[in-house]
Amino acid sequence: MQKDPYLILGLQSDATQQQVEDAYRALRKEYEEKCFAEGEEGARAARKLTELDQAYRDCLEDLQSRVKISDFGNVLGHVEDLVKQGKLDDAQDALDKIEPRDAEWHYVQALIYYRRNWHTESKNQLEIALALDPPNAKYQRTYKRLTDMLSGAGQGASQGAGQQQQARSGYADTRGGYSRPADRGADNLNACCNTCSTLICCDCCCECMGGDLIPCC
């Protein structure tokens, strides 16, 4: 089992780089003096120096990775600020330069897409974020709000299309399975015209026969 490099240097795992360097120098100086001793003491000191060198390298590598993670979070926070300011192009440019593209990266991408009204693309990015980090409550809440919004918009669009279809077919509402015409004024006007035309024709025929159906005409 590999030893904890911080413990080898006599440090806690949250030690700073300065603490790592100071501990390494002090221990190395101690064992360098002992490695010239004869017999097992010198051999043990030489092995300890090798162990210290490896522990020092491991600690520095761990510290560097911690700095990268911190910087990564700071950069994503900056991108989110740009999104809030409405600077979507700047936010996208900054996001495209960030590696690695983990769950939070896809979450921020979803925010940018949402602000552009690209709701389907935003939903896809949230699904990737959830796949990478399923228990994340922030991703779950955002995904639920978005899917609820999209579901409501779809129902509204369907109802609107149905109302437009009813209007086009000439019916405004239905009740008990029966439809009521929205406006039959034009049909009523046509019926009146047809009645008047018929009466005039009949009056003409009566006059030809010596009668008068409509005295005023």
Question: Helices, strands, pairings?
Answer:
Blueprint: H1 5-8, H2 17-34, H3 40-84, H4 88-96, H5 103-115, H6 119-132, H7 137-169, E1 171-175, E2 178-181, H8 185-208
Antiparallel strand pairs: 1-2
What's the short story on this structure?
The protein has helices at residues 5-8, 17-34, 40-84, 88-96, 103-115, 119-132, 137-169, 185-208; strands at residues 171-175, 178-181.
How would you describe this structure to a colleague?
The chain has helices spanning 5-8, 17-34, 40-84, 88-96, 103-115, 119-132, 137-169, 185-208, and strands at 171-175, 178-181. α3 packs antiparallel against α4 (88-96). It is built from 8 helices and 2 strands, in the order αααααααββα. The N and C termini lie far apart (120 Å). Helices cover 74% and strands 4% of the residues. It has a two-stranded antiparallel sheet.
Order of the strands making up the biggest sheet: 1-2
What is the number of helical segments per DSSP (H or I, 4+ residues)?
8
CATH secondary-structure class of the largest domain: Mainly Alpha
Instruction: Tell me about the largest β-sheet.
Output: 2 strands, antiparallel
Secondary-structure element series = HHHHHHHEEH
Class derived from helix and strand content: mainly alpha
Approximate strand percentage: under 5%
Percent helix among the residues?
over 70%
Number of strands: 2
